User: Which sequence fits this backbone?
């Protein structure tokens, strides 16, 4: 395992070192110590490596990740795993705003709570939150799955497209064009796989599914608020 | 006129300037449909513009350069502040961001071909980077937009510069809409959305909310791209002094400033005509911000919005811009609104020169459409040739003016070379009114 002291060696050296790892690298395990809330840690990775961050991070940790597994042993600032393409990001603590924003693929697991706008504009990513999520989550979410084992804040799924939202607890309010939908067997199967992938012991039968009413899909003045 | 008042003269009918025929027609249209008008393009109303400025030329106190022989350089380097690989352009006229989706793949290819032949850059748009565009563009600027349609790290790394779009001149503070009729299978796939549904482009970025966040976002983009790419920040012409100041503070290499004449693929007409400022009013304020920060020429300024000729280019540069971007003019050069399609325009209820329903996907010229039959009308090779010609003419025109002002580089043009024809232009551009040494607001003078 390679250990990298972020405080001593600096962000630029960290990211350039991680970017230099090829698909067939032997240095597959990395440990980053002293992150101390720094921004843009482990961004733009594109190799099948595992990066363990020992502590909390600032903005955009693991942004635009591809292939890599990034495991944060702490909490993360805004925009973690933003625009992720593939791979896995696991957060042991809480996540600030915009977790998983615009993610195209991969899996984001947040074992604590996520703040507002979790999964905003998501485009294929799967997000599993063990705790609660804040307001305006899944705003304009296009595709992918958002699983919330706790409660959801106001305006969940506002202006939603085709993403699936699964919530076990309460939903403070639904956003424009977001409705509760029938949980059919195929959705139970999808959710069970997501819960297993996210390390949740919740039962799929305890969740409700939300999705788009598809009433905003084509321009109509009656849809203006 | 019929006289039925015992021979006494009557007043002639007078159309109201306030309730003019076009205004009344729009009221009737709104009353009939209940839907506001969406269209493409930029502001159509008459605005203070570069036509309201004139160059003074050389005289006894100014020594001109020979019009055809003496050297007058046009090159520009963008992104010298932080980027490892600044963009080197042979001419200061670039192609503004226009999306694949709004434009056909062939039109994007033509923009790349023409820009490359002319030695300048072109820019992606909402919807991501196409192979046609990357393949035919020697210098390609990759837009980073609120929707993040098609955004991915591979394209970030294969672009030549990144343009973070905060706003655009046609709609500062507004998002966009690509209506369902233009969402082909390919467009839908690039944007991760079903075919045929309207695709909203958000008005603000999903993962940052202010200049402090933006600074961190720029850090992330630089880290992902190894600090190689120049990072532009594009703003609409709203508050140019403060927006430029904040863009520089956030770490921009280049500020792109787009006035309200700048076009859009589709936005409400009321937005296009009533929000934002004309580019003439924005340039000097942006330059003042750069000068106050001691960053003029260190952070380059690219301006756009209604640029049509080499005279416009020269005037914008004399006001302090480092480079120019064109959008609508480039489409016209490709063949948009060409009178040869007049019968087709008439069939759509419009006429060549006025066609602006680009969002409906029925462009007779095959440029702002995804309809295969219409797209087949457009030849990207010929389009590229025409764009190259047009860019060459603009550059030659700007050089001609610069030489007449005694300048051996377009960047040496300066406010002192200009006078203003109107009080409005004098005030906005901070250029003396013709025949005077005064402009409204000139320090040391009263209004």
Assistant:
């Amino acid at each position: 395992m390679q250990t990298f002291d972020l405080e001593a060696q600096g962000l630029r050296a960290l990211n350039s070192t991680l970017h230099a790892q090829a698909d067939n690298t032997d240095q597959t395990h990395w440990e980053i110590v002293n992150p101390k809330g720094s921004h843009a840690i482990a961004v733009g990775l594109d190799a099948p490596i595992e990066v363990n961050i020992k502590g909390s991070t600032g903005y955009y940790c693991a942004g635009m990740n591809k292939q890599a597994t990034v495991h944060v042993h702490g909490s993360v600032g805004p925009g973690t795993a933003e625009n992720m393409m593939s791979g896995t990001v696991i957060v042991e603590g809480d996540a600030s705003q915009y977790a998983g924003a615009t993610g195209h693929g991969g899996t984001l697991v947040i074992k604590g709570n996520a703040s507002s706008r979790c999964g905003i504009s998501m485009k294929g990513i799967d997000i599993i939150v063990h705790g609660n999520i804040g307001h305006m989550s899944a705003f304009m979410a296009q595709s992918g799955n958002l699983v919330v084992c706790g409660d959801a804040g106001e305006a969940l799924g506002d202006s939603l497209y085709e993403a699936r939202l699964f919530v076990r607890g309460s939903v403070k309010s639904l956003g424009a064009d977001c409705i509760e939908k029938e949980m059919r067997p195929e959705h139970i199967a999808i959710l069970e796989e997501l819960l297993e992938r996210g390390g949740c012991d919740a039962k799929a039968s305890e969740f409700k599914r939300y999705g788009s009413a598809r009433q905003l899909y084509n321009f109509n003045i009656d849809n203006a608020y | 006129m019929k006289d039925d008042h015992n021979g006494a003269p009557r007043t002639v009918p007078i159309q109201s300037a306030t309730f003019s025929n076009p205004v009344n027609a729009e009221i009737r249209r709104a009353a009939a449909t209940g839907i506001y008008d969406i269209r493409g393009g930029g502001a159509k109303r008459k605005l203070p513009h570069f036509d309201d400025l004139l160059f003074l030329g050389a005289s006894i106190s100014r020594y001109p350069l020979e019009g055809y022989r003496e050297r007058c350089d046009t090159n520009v380097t963008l992104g010298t502040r932080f980027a490892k690989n600044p963009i080197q352009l042979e001419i200061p006229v670039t192609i503004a961001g226009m999306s694949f989706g709004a434009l056909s793949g062939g039109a994007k290819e033509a923009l790349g071909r023409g820009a490359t032949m002319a030695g300048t850059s072109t820019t992606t748009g909402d919807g991501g980077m196409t192979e046609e565009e990357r393949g035919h563009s020697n210098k390609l600027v990759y837009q980073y937009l609120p929707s993040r349609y098609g955004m991915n790290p591979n394209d970030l790394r294969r672009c030549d510069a990144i343009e973070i779009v905060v706003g655009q001149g046609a709609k500062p503070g507004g998002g966009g809409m690509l209506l369902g009729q233009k969402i082909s299978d390919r467009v839908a796939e690039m944007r991760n959305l079903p075919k045929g549904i309207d695709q909203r482009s958000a008005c603000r970025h999903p993962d940052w909310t202010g200049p402090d966040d933006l600074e961190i976002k720029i850090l992330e983009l630089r880290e992902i791209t190894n600090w190689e790419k120049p990072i532009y920040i594009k703003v609409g012409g709203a508050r140019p002094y403060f927006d430029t100041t904040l863009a520089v503070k956030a770490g921009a290499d280049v500020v792109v400033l787009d006035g309200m004449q700048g076009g859009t693929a589709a936005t409400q007409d009321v937005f296009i005509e009533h929000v934002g400022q004309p580019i003439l009013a924005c340039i000097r304020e942006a330059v003042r911000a750069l000068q106050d920060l001691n960053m003029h020429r260190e952070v380059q300024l690219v301006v756009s919005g209604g640029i049509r000729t080499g005279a416009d280019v020269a005037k914008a540069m004399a006001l302090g811009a480092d480079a120019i971007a064109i959008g609508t003019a480039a489409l016209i050069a490709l063949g948009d609104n060409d009178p040869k399609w007049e019968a087709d325009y008439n069939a759509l209820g419009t006429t060549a020169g006025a066609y602006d329903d680009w969002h409906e996907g029925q462009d007779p010229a095959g440029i702002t459409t995804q309809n295969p039959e219409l797209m087949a009308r457009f030849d990207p090779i010929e389009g590229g040739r025409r764009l190259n010609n047009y860019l060459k003419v603009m550059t030659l025109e700007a050089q001609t003016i610069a030489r007449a002002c005694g300048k051996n580089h377009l960047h040496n043009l300066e406010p002192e070379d200009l006078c203003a024809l109107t009080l409005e232009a004098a005030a906005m551009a901070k250029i003396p009114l013709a025949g005077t040494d005064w402009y409204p607001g000139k320090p040391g003078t009263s209004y």
Summary: Helices of chain A lie at 6-9, 11-19, 185-197. The domain at 2-215 of chain A is CATH 2.160.20.60 (Pectate Lyase C-like). Chain A touches chain B through 43 residues (CB under 8 Å).
